[in-house]
Write a structure and sequence with these properties.
The chain is mostly helical. The chain is 92% helix and 0% strand. Keywords: Membrane, Transmembrane, Transmembrane helix.
Protein backbone atom coordinates (compact mmCIF):
# COMPACT_ATOMS: atom_id res chain seq x y z
CA UNK A 1 0.00 0.00 0.00
CA UNK A 2 2.90 2.31 0.74
CA UNK A 3 4.23 1.91 -2.81
CA UNK A 4 0.88 2.92 -4.31
CA UNK A 5 0.79 6.07 -2.21
CA UNK A 6 4.37 6.81 -3.24
CA UNK A 7 3.46 6.39 -6.91
CA UNK A 8 0.41 8.67 -6.55
CA UNK A 9 2.46 11.28 -4.71
CA UNK A 10 5.19 11.30 -7.35
CA UNK A 11 2.69 11.34 -10.20
CA UNK A 12 0.81 14.29 -8.72
CA UNK A 13 4.14 16.09 -8.33
CA UNK A 14 4.86 15.31 -12.00
CA UNK A 15 1.52 16.78 -13.07
CA UNK A 16 2.15 19.91 -10.99
CA UNK A 17 5.56 20.27 -12.63
CA UNK A 18 3.94 20.06 -16.07
CA UNK A 19 1.45 22.79 -15.13
CA UNK A 20 4.27 24.98 -13.83
CA UNK A 21 6.13 24.35 -17.08
CA UNK A 22 3.20 25.65 -19.12
CA UNK A 23 2.87 28.72 -16.88
CA UNK A 24 6.59 29.50 -17.12
CA UNK A 25 6.54 29.14 -20.90
CA UNK A 26 3.57 31.50 -21.12
CA UNK A 27 5.16 34.08 -18.82
CA UNK A 28 8.47 33.89 -20.67
CA UNK A 29 6.88 34.35 -24.08
CA UNK A 30 4.59 37.18 -22.95
CA UNK A 31 7.41 39.01 -21.17
CA UNK A 32 9.60 38.66 -24.25
CA UNK A 33 6.83 40.12 -26.43
CA UNK A 34 6.34 42.93 -23.90
CA UNK A 35 10.09 43.57 -23.84
CA UNK A 36 10.29 43.90 -27.62
CA UNK A 37 7.28 46.23 -27.66
CA UNK A 38 8.65 48.35 -24.81
CA UNK A 39 12.08 48.51 -26.42
CA UNK A 40 10.61 49.70 -29.72
CA UNK A 41 8.60 52.37 -27.91
CA UNK A 42 11.67 53.41 -25.87
CA UNK A 43 10.00 52.77 -22.51
CA UNK A 44 12.30 52.85 -19.49
CA UNK A 45 11.23 49.58 -17.87
CA UNK A 46 12.26 47.48 -20.88
CA UNK A 47 15.42 46.11 -19.14
CA UNK A 48 13.27 44.88 -16.26
CA UNK A 49 11.10 42.95 -18.71
CA UNK A 50 14.23 41.49 -20.29
CA UNK A 51 15.48 40.28 -16.90
CA UNK A 52 12.08 38.73 -16.15
CA UNK A 53 12.04 36.94 -19.50
CA UNK A 54 15.61 35.64 -19.00
CA UNK A 55 14.76 34.31 -15.53
CA UNK A 56 11.53 32.66 -16.71
CA UNK A 57 13.26 31.15 -19.72
CA UNK A 58 16.02 29.75 -17.51
CA UNK A 59 13.53 28.24 -15.09
CA UNK A 60 11.53 26.85 -18.02
CA UNK A 61 14.61 25.13 -19.46
CA UNK A 62 15.64 23.65 -16.11
CA UNK A 63 12.15 22.29 -15.46
CA UNK A 64 11.79 21.04 -19.04
CA UNK A 65 15.04 19.09 -18.74
CA UNK A 66 13.96 17.57 -15.41
CA UNK A 67 10.49 16.43 -16.59
CA UNK A 68 11.70 13.47 -18.66
CA UNK A 69 13.70 11.77 -15.85
CA UNK A 70 10.75 12.27 -13.51
CA UNK A 71 8.42 10.50 -15.94
CA UNK A 72 10.94 7.72 -16.51
CA UNK A 73 11.36 7.18 -12.76
CA UNK A 74 7.60 7.01 -12.21
CA UNK A 75 7.20 4.47 -15.04
CA UNK A 76 10.01 2.34 -13.56
CA UNK A 77 8.28 2.33 -10.18
CA UNK A 78 4.98 1.30 -11.81
CA UNK A 79 6.66 -1.52 -13.76
CA UNK A 80 8.38 -2.69 -10.58
CA UNK A 81 5.05 -2.65 -8.74
CA UNK A 82 3.32 -4.64 -11.50
CA UNK A 83 6.09 -7.22 -11.51
CA UNK A 84 5.44 -8.14 -7.88
Amino acid sequence: MNKKQDILKKYSMFLKAKKILVVLATIASLSLIAYVSAYKMDIKFAPILMIISIICTGLFLVLWISIKPMKKHILEIIKEQQGK
